[in-house]
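G., the chain you wanted modeled:
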Amino acid sequence: MIVVAGESLIDLVADGAAPGPLPALVPRRGGGPYNTAVALGRLGAEVGFCSRVSTDGFGEALMDGLREAGVGTGLVQRGPEPTTLAVASVGADGSAEYGFYVEGTADRLFALPERLPEGVRAVAFGTCSLALEPGASAYEALLRRESGRGVLTLLDPNIRRGLIPDAAAYRARFASWLPYVSLLKLSEEDAAWLGGTPAQWLERGPSAVVVTRGGAGLTVHTPTSEVSVPAVRVEVADTIGAGDTVNAALLHGLGDRPVPALDAEAWSALLTYAAGAAALTCTRPGAEPPYANELPDPPG
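Predicted structure as C-alpha cells:
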C-alpha cells in the first residue's frame, strides 16, 4: 500500500469561455498530495490518503473524488474548518500560478496519526502541507517516523512562494528533511529556487533525485548515473497536476523495488512511463490524471 500525506484543496480556475473582464471561476478538486493520491488510484495502485479534510461542501466533494478514484479514506481526519482555496492563473503556455486562501483551514490542523496500516511500502509528502504550521510539523514527524521504520519516502517540495514568508528558514528545513527521503522529485524551477545541486542533495540522503524539465522531459540523478527521457508532445490544455501525476507514476512503476536497485535501463523505462502519464494530464483542463487503461503497463 502507498500512503499520500498532505493537503487537499479547491483550485478556482478561470473559465476562459466566460465573457467580461472578470471570468467565472470554476472549482476543481486539487492540492498536490490529493492529486497524487487520485492519480495513484486511477493507475490501479492500493493507496490511502492521510490528511485533514473539511466537512463543508468542498470537503465533501474532495472526499467523493477520493472514493471515485479508489483511494482509501481511513486515514483522513475531518473538521469543521473551511477548505483551502487556490486561485489559479493559467498562462499562455498552460503553466499555472496560484494565490491561496489558507487562514484557519482544515488541512493546516492535521495531527500526527498514531500509526499507519500494516503493509505500507511507501509514503509521499509535499507542497503546502510542509510549509504551513501547525500541520507542517506533524507531517515532518510522520516523514521522520516512517523513514526510520524503513518505509520508502518520496518528497516533492512543489514550492509555492507566496506561502513561504522566510525563504532561508524553509531552505534550511528542506535540507533537514533530506536524510529521511528515499526519492526526491522536483521541478527545474523548484531546484533553482531551493539552491544546491542534485549531487549535493544525494550526499544528504536520497537514493535518487528526479528533476522534471517541462517540455524538455525528465532527468534522474543517482550516485552512479544520470538518465534523461524526452517529454511526450501533446496539445497542452494546462499543466495543473502534471508533476503530481509524475509522483504517482514513479511510485506505481517502482512496485516493490527499492530505489537503489534501479539501473540506468530501469530508470529510463520508469521515467518514460511517468512522462507519458504526465502528458495525458496536460491534455485536460485541471488536475485530471489518466487511468491505467490509457497507459502501457508500468515497468515495475
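The mean pLDDT is 93.

Shout if anything looks off.
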